[in-house]
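FORM 7B - TANDEM STRUCTURE REPORT

SECTION 1: FIRST PROTEIN
SEQUENCE AND TOKENS:
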Amino acid sequence: MKRITYWPQLVLGLAFNWGALVGWSAMAGGMDWLVTLPLYAAGVSWTLVYDTIYGHQDKRDDVAAGVKSTSLLFGDNTKVILSAFSASTIGFICLSGYMNGQGILFFATVLGAGSSHLIWQLKSVNINDPATCWRIFRSNTWFGGIILAGIMADIIYKRYGSNNDGKSDSQSLDKSN
């Protein structure tokens, strides 16, 4: 794709994150598009963020080889553009969580720690220093871990929290009305 378009990271995101759709349908026995499409979009946006940072490591080689990437396309505007993709990543994760009935611990973790991590990445990365790009790229395992921690905290709270009935606070409030 790098020989055809400046957006190979988008193609990578579309391919890598297909697992969100396949995994959901395998586990749930069907598809809830209101949950899975925002989740898929979040994954694609996140891939654009981390793989563009990764691509800045070898942009000189890409130019010499005549191949394209979002790193070359975005150039000096990379941080601004990746800020928008980072915001859409967080927004789509939150939309997916909302549509899936996630609770306050999920949202607090995603919005607090998840957003903070992406902001830290964009403030810390020097797109002209391959070592920094590699370090920031690798830190995305922590972003994935943060999102997982939010999901797990929410599940644990719903199962063992103050209600002890397996329902979220909003579901319990609905019953009392």
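SECTION 2: SECOND PROTEIN
SEQUENCE AND TOKENS:
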Amino acid sequence: MSKFIEHDVQRPSSLYRTSSAAASFASTSPTSNGKKKGVDIYEADEQGVSPTDSRYSRLNCPLLLFAITAAISSINYGWVIGSINIPALVIEECADGPVAWTNGFPSCIPMSSTLWGLVVGLTPLGAWAGSMFSGIAADKFGRKHMLMYNNAFFVSGAIIASTSTSVAQLSVGRFVSGIGCGVAANVVSTYCSEVSTIRSRGFLGGFQQLMILVGVFLSQVVSIGLSKAPLWRVLFSISAAIAIVQTLLLFFIPESPKYLASTKQIDKAEAVLVRLRKDMDIAFELDDLLTVLEYSRQTDYVPQPTMWQ
């Protein structure tokens, strides 16, 4: 015997929307004999979960591809923090020989171990700075566009570091790249969380950390062949190439439905949910999203972030 889904949350009547996707989905569905029959979107299994309810849909191919595209920023994060490790002796101690200038660039930048530690430490300092404003910026520009804009930090930092001729220039490059790392750490996790479903949230929640480790691993592998003068400059410049590739790919992924709904772009949020939840009914999920947003506005349950949040 079929059970029916019961909702504990009482939704404001002004918020409830009948999704056009829900109407089209509920109209027809193929049967085993090739005929069409109506689908009751309220019908549930023994666990009280409707097989057509998008809130409980599993990870699908489009959702995974969108998450991977966003998480390229996390790969770049890992690349930035890992690429400086293996060529350290070549850069700071001129392990390949005395300083030699080629096309206006020195083969190494000699400095003390203390100063080298400061240069390396400027990356997490930049990440701290980036993480402070990334939340406000992502709420203003959107998660997708913020990832695009953030790639400017990765590109700028890579160019400055790969063309550095002094300790000061290398330090600035590492700091600027660090800002990109801090923004990526915040925005990637936010985007993956907001496009995920209940069943895929656990996997996508740890997706950012996984991609950071992938970036660190790739940087170490590539560093084996590029950790000598002057190829260490190429190693630093690869971060810019990663950022450019991701910027192009970001044009093909949707914005977070939660961001769209929070900026009162309800029709666009609904269209994105239909795209994310392939062949599923998104009526309940959209209704829940609007209810939570309205509740937060009425009760200040989610306060506006400050510079320090």
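SECTION 3: OBSERVATIONS ON SECOND PROTEIN
The first helix runs from residue 20 to 27.
Confidence is low (pLDDT under 50) at residues 1-42.

SECTION 4: SIGNATURE
Preparer initials: ____
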